[in-house]
Amino acid sequence: MVTREELKGHWNEVTGRLKEQWGQLTDDDLMRAEGSAEQLVGVVQQKTGATRREVEQFLTKVLGPDNPWASQVAEAAQRYADEAKHYLQQNARRVVSQTGDYSVKVAETVRTKPAESLAIAFGLGIAAGALFFMGRRR
């Protein structure tokens, strides 16, 4: 188990190395993290524009694989990846469902109003062709 003094020593090392890597970070910025690896990654991302992966890789490099902070960062990254995966899966299902609904509506419209559908398709084709040829002239 890491003692409070060891943790404080790592904290000072980490914040010092972060400020070396990203000069725009201030002590106040880093204090907002309050000793949390996940909050630290978020603060560095927000202040520097670095990606989450860049910050996590930097922290892992600084702390080494056996350091307790490195495992906290890795766990935070895994939670973040799991949440992103879950979010994408939910929204992918929703998009597929909506796409199916729209295709049924379009098919019904084409079946019930073929002349209007053909006129709209023809107009869109002319508009797309005009945009294409106008873009090539530049």
TrEMBL record:
Domain CsbD-like: 6-56
Keyword hit for Transmembrane: yes
Superkingdom per UniProt: Bacteria
Record-given protein name: Uncharacterized protein YjbJ (UPF0337 family)
Keyword entries, A-Z: Membrane, Transmembrane, Transmembrane helix
UniProt record similarity statement: Belongs to the UPF0337 (CsbD) family.
Segments traversing the membrane: 118-135
InterPro entries assigned: CsbD, UPF0337_stress_rsp, YjbJ_sf
SUPFAM superfamilies (UniProt xref): Hypothetical protein YjbJ
